[in-house]
Amino acid sequence: MSSKKWTLNSGFLLNTQYSVLSTQYYLTLREDLLHFIWKYRKLCTTELVGTNNEPIRIVEPGIHNHLAGPDFFNAKLSIDGQLWAGNVEIHLSSSDWYAHHHERDSNYDNVILHVVWEDDAAVFYSDNSQIPTLELRNYISQNLLDDYQNLFDRNGTGFINCEKHIAEIDTFLLDNWLERLYFERLERKATLVLELLETSKNDWEQVLFALLLKNFGLKVNGSPFLSLAQALDFSTVRKLQFDSLTLESVFYGMSHLLDSDEIFDDYYIRLKKEYVYSRKKFDLKADAVQKPHFFKLRPPNFPTIRLSQLANLYATHQNLFSRVIHATDLSEIRSLFNVSASGYWNRHYTFGKPSRKSTKKLTGKFIDLLVINSLLPLKFCYARHQGKDANEEIIQIISQIKKEENSVIANYERVGVGIENAKESQALLQLYNEYCTQNKCLQCAVGSRLLHENC
To answer: What domain of life does the native source organism fall in (predicted)?
Structure first.
């Protein structure tokens, strides 16, 4: 190894060579580096010796476990001349075994080797025999530690750790990683779908209705609109959807947008009368529905406009769920959502206040957001529920949608990542939120490859 000295210091790795520059240089040592070293056998020698002087040879490092339990399953090791098969647990310090209460957990009874950076405490099985321990700091090259340090050294704008090198990554590797990340993001969106499915007692049409309401509300009114979906049973929507005005009246009334007694507009008064009738007929309860917001919204996104557009969507398609599920092309989906708000809204954005005439039609950009955030997660979950695989269809649709435009995507483009469509922009949002901002570089194909190539 290099003459540089590294020691563990309160959870940090201290390189004492840099202290001569009057600045103590710290690098956070994370367990994921030790996982990487063990998984890919990034050790200076194959002649390993445990802390009790027993020879250790790695036959198979095992299968990396990212869930609860030991870090590597089904490893094969030769320890002091005896071949063992079992699990490997990795910690920064041996004492972490007790800090994490593994001595109380039977899942760790089959650990055959404890791999640590520093052996600061003896660790025992339940029968009081000592668990073999390998102290990694004796077998790691200075070059690998320096490369790990450089991976986290943001000398650029501070956007992401690897911003100087991500553009150098092989296109094939990056494309495959982004596709995997897109499905990770889809899995995350699927969580809400499954929650809605459970609360609706497996009513997929109710689920679609709730997803559309939430996403028609965008960020500002997503929660209020979702509360409306949770308070309004879709069986009522089925009965009312043949008349868009009646359906609008229920949406507005339950959203507390018809509460004023100071608006004398004929359309508003008619909606109020319709709502009073429907409320009694269907025993509608709106106490838990949040009133939507208008503040800081562009007029086309006002809740009055969005609720009318949704009412007209359901008035146009009485079998919307079936048509969405069977649509296999983006153009087919877009045609389903080719609807506008009711005629009253051609000259209004809010009740009783005339405005310049304009048709309040769903834009292509808004429809694409619905596809990304509502329809594809729904298709993904429904196919899985049916025991089918819709991944190719989903990829085909998302790849036809233009990339999103936001600061995160702009920054990836700035550091040299080419982005062609919404599949890639969605994947990069997943990468940024779940890996880059959390310094999970060694769980990322990019960071892993960069460290792999340099050590």
So the answer is: Bacteria
DSSP-H helix ranges across 337-444 = 364-370, 376-385, 391-398, 407-414, 422-434
Give first-to-last CA distance, the chain, whole Å: 13
Q: Which residue has the higher pLDDT, 314 or 148?
A: 314
Q: Supply 241's token pair.
A: 């959807």
The sign one gets for the Cα dihedral 325, 327, 333, 335 is negative
SS3 227: helix
Q: For 238-247, what is the mean pLDDT? A: 96
Residue 206 to residue 209: CA distance in whole angstroms = 5
Q: What is the per-residue pLDDT across 187-226, written as a single tens digit (0 to 9) for each?
A: 999 999 999 999 999 999 999 999 999 999 999 999 999 9
- Taking the C-alpha atoms of residue 324 and residue 192, their distance in angstroms, rounded to an integer, is 18
What sign results for the dihedral spanned by CA atoms 44, 47, 53, 57? positive
Helix (H) or strand (E) holding 15: strand 12-15
Burial class (CB in 10 A: 0-12, 13-18, 19+), 217: buried
Separation of alpha carbons 322 and 43, rounded Å: 57
**Residue pair 448/147 in contact by the 8 Å Cβ criterion:** no
- Which residues, in sequence order, are bridge partners of residue 124? 130
pLDDT band at 147 (very low <50, low <70, confident <90, very high): confident
Lowest mean pLDDT among 111-125, 144-158, 233-247: 144-158
* Per-residue model confidence as pLDDT tens digits over 128-141: 899 999 999 889 88
Judge whether residue 69 has pLDDT over 80: yes
Entry pTM:
0.84
Copy the structure tokens of residue 225.
């609109």
Listed residue (420, 427, 384) closest to 402, CA to CA: 420
Domain spans of the chain, in order of start: 31-141, 166-182+402-454, 200-398
Beta-sheet pairing, 63-64 with 72-79: antiparallel
Confidence band (pLDDT; 50, 70, 90) for 145?
confident
Average pLDDT, the chain: 91
Q: How many CB atoms lie within 10 A of CB 93?
A: 15
Going by C-alpha positions, the residue among 453, 454, 451 that lies closest to residue 35 is 451
Alpha helices, H only, 15-116: 31-39, 96-99
The DSSP line for 277-341 is HHHHHHT---TTPPPP--TT--GGG-HHHHHHHHHHHHHH-TTHHHHHHH--SHHHHHHHT--B-
Question: Which residues does 101 contact at the CB level (< 8 Å), separation at least 6?
Answer: none
Q: To the nearest 10°, the Cα dihedral for 295, 297, 300, 301?
A: -90
